[in-house]
Write the structure tokens for this entry.
Amino acid sequence: RKEVEQDPGPFNVPEGATVAFNCTYSNSASQSFFWYRQDCRKEPKLLMSVYSSGNEDGRFTAQLNRASQYISLLIRDSKLSDSATYLCVVNMRGSQGNLIFGKGTKLSVKP
Amino acid sequence: DGGITQSPKYLFRKEGQNVTLSCEQNLNHDAMYWYRQDPGQGLRLIYYSQIVNDFQKGDIAEGYSVSREKKESFPLTVTSAQKNPTAFYLCASRGPGTSGRLQETQYFGPGTRLLVL
């Protein structure tokens, strides 16, 4: 079983739409959770951390369900500039800070 | 400005040649990492270093070597033993972000694209 699984997409949505991405992780010892954004042919950049209580940063909302080992990212009022690949990332306890990356979900926002 | 730099942006390797990719950071981070990304694939860990003069193999270390003689620098050598070196190579360091609201995690350099001639 893959350690971090994401739907690869692509998700094609119109500007202004709300879109949600999901991610599941296999290791219950996972400790920290993140969403990174990667633009085409660029490096991944941290979008936001994911906290147990859920957290919001502007149009972005991240949620964590430890019981189901499930992470989500919700983007409201999509902009053209949101087009990118979104990587779900997990850090396991005792892993010396090593991260496990999902393969990413591709989002394309159309005018 | 604090950050991570990688050079060169593009690198061409001939058959049987060793090439070295540079990674430098001025974030004062102790831990540094090298990843490889192939099209449509996730990031795979090649080597990592938690502290100067120490490094560990990642998931796909065969055909690669590293050194960590200085805190700021973590060069990666792709040796001739690596039979499929064409990929996007990403270096990262771990620590707090440069903005106050960013928590400790890994931050990436801009990457080096390695192509085989």
Summary: Residues 13 and 116 of chain B are 5 Å apart (CA to CA). The longest strand of chain B covers residues 43-51.
